[in-house]
Amino acid sequence: MAKPSGSIIAVWCYGLMEITPAVDQIVHRYYHDVIGKYWEPERRLVEQGCGEIPFPFQEITAPEFLMEATWTFGHLLGYLGTWSAAQAAIRSEGWGPLEGIRVELQGAWGPEKLARRIRWPLFVRAGRISKETP
To answer: Tens of pLDDT along 7-60?
Structure first.
């Protein structure tokens, strides 16, 4: 149930991380080509920044946001391994999709203990609830 008229609602999601051009190229290939067929169809909504989700509110332009962290190579591998498509590939095919890119990704990253800044673009949809909102 919506709050009284005039209240604000916001929904958000985040896109693929940005690290360096060399690392990003490998991560994008992993995302699209290696495990791409294992993503659930609803993942497309996130890829579109939630812009295709029905949003029956008076839209408000939200500022741009970034989420940031500092990670080592081990953190990155751990994160990529948690992706639902990676887990689906393991269940379906019995193989670990990260192994196919690990050496190349390590070369682009540099030393394993090297800490790099990771940034994710956040996509925000905000709106004002009106009396007509269901």
So the answer is: 888 888 899 999 999 999 999 999 999 999 999 998 988 888 878 888 888 899
Reported pTM: 0.84
Q: What is the DSSP string of 38-84?
A: GS-TTHHHHHTTTTTS---SEEEPPPPEEEEEEE-HHHHHHHHHHSH
Measured CA to CA, the distance from residue 77 to residue 123 in angstroms comes to 24
Please say whether the dihedral angle defined by the alpha carbons of residues 107, 112, 115 and 117, taken in this order, is positive or negative.
positive
Query: In a 3-state reduction of DSSP, which class is residue 17?
Result: coil
**Residue 122 · residue 17 · CB < 8 Å:** no
